[in-house]
Specification:
The chain is an alpha+beta fold. The protein has two domains: 1-96 and 186-257, Dna Ligase, domain 1 (2-Layer Sandwich), CATH 3.30.1490; 101-183, Acyl-CoA Binding Protein, CATH 1.20.80. The protein is built from nine helices and nine strands. It has helices at 15-20, 33-42, 47-64, 104-111, 114-133, 137-151, 161-179, 187-201, 205-211, and strands at residues 5-7, 28-31, 67-68, 74-75, 77-81, 93-97, 224-228, 238-242, 251-255. It has a five-stranded antiparallel β-sheet. The protein has a two-stranded parallel ribbon with strand order 3-4. A two-stranded antiparallel sheet has the order 8-9. A hairpin with an 8-residue loop joins strand 8 (238-242) and strand 9 (251-255). The longest helix is centred in the middle third of the chain and has 20 residues, at 114-133. The relative contact order is 0.18.
Length: 257
C-alpha cells in the first residue's frame, strides 16, 4: 500500500530535522502533497489514507499521553497547509480540532482556566467555519464586535468566561444558519473535514494568488501538517525557530518548554 503519511521522525526537512535534533517539537505528522493530488483527482480521501491518519493519530496520543475526544483531558490538534513553499494564508489553518461540548469542561479543568477554554472553542468554530465551510469572516467578526460592545470592553482579551460562553452559542447559531447543520461534535469528523478543506484550498483563487508570484507549479499540491496543540500562553511559552541560513525558508513553531 502506498504510504501518504509521515511522522516527524520520518521526514527529511524542517519539523523532521528539528525533531531528530531533539528540539521540543510537539508530536505530529505530515500528510504528503501526493495525497493532496490524489484527493484533487478523486475529490475524496481514500480509505487507505483515512486508516493511515488514524494510525498516526494514535502515535500522537501515545506520545502526548492524551487522547483525542477524551472528556477529561482532551488532545487538541492544529492543522495547517504545509507544502514545500510557504503559504501564509490563515484560511489554510485550523486550530483546536477536538474541542466539543463533551471535551470543553475537561480542557477548562485541566488548564484551570474557564475563560481560556471557551476562547479556544470560540476560535475553533470561527476558523473551522471559515476554512472548512466557507462561512464569511464578517459573520463571526460582527458577532465578536457585538460581544465586546455588550460587555463594555474594547479588546477581545477583556471578555470573560461568561461572555465567551455566550459567544460560542452565538457562533454555533451562525454556523447552523450558513450550513444548515450543527457544528460537528465528533472530533474525527472535525479532523478529516479539515484535511479535506485544506487539500481543496490548493485550487482556490486565494491560493493561486499566493503562489503565482513565486512561480509555484499549479499541479504541486499541498501537504498538510497535523500537530498536537501546545498552549504557550498558559506556560513558559512557544516560539518560532528560524534558520541562520538566509537561503533556507524554514519557519517552524516549537514548544519552548
Amino acid at each position: 500500500m502506498k504510504r501518504y503519511v509521515r511522522g516527524f521522525t520520518e521526514g527529511c526537512r524542517d519539523l523532521a530535522e528539528l525533531t531528530r535534533l531533539g528540539r521540543p517539537v510537539p508530536a505530529g505528522f505530515t500528510i504528503t502533497a501526493e495525497a493532496c493530488r490524489a484527493f484533487l483527482a478523486a475529490q475524496e480521501l481514500s480509505a487507505d489514507l483515512i486508516e493511515e491518519i488514524g494510525e498516526h493519530l494514535r502515535r500522537i496520543e501515545r506520545t502526548m499521553g492524551r487522547w483525542f475526544g477524551d472528556p477529561a483531558d482532551p488532545l487538541l490538534l492544529s492543522i495547517r497547509a504545509g507544502a514545500r513553499f510557504s503559504a501564509p494564508d490563515p484560511m489554510a489553518t485550523v486550530l483546536n480540532i477536538g474541542l466539543t461540548d463533551g471535551t470543553i469542561d475537561g480542557l477548562a479543568a485541566v488548564t484551570g482556566d474557564d475563560r481560556f477554554a471557551w476562547d479556544s472553542y470560540r476560535r475553533l468554530i470561527q476558523m473551522y467555519g471559515r476554512t472548512v465551510r466557507s462561512i464569511p469572516a464578517d459573520a463571526f467578526e460582527d458577532a465578536l464586535a457585538e460581544a465586546r460592545l455588550a460587555a463594555g470592553v474594547r479588546l477581545d482579551t477583556a471578555l470573560g468566561a461568561d461572555d465567551l460562553r455566550a459567544l460560542v452559542a452565538r457562533y454555533r447559531r451562525i454556523y447552523a444558519h450558513h450550513t444548515g447543520e450543527d457544528f460537528p461534535q465528533d472530533p474525527n469528523v472535525q479532523l478529516l473535514e479539515a484535511v479535506r478543506a485544506i487539500f481543496a484550498w490548493w485550487n482556490t483563487p486565494r491560493a493561486r494568488v499566493y503562489r503565482r508570484p513565486e512561480g509555484i507549479p499549479e499541479d504541486l499540491g499541498t501537504a498538510v501538517t497535523v500537530m498536537a496543540v501546545v498552549f504557550g500562553d498558559l506556560g513558559p511559552g512557544t516560539g518560532v525557530a528560524f534558520t541562520r541560513d538566509p537561503g533556507e525558508r524554514v519557519t517552524t513553531s516549537v514548544d519552548s518548554r
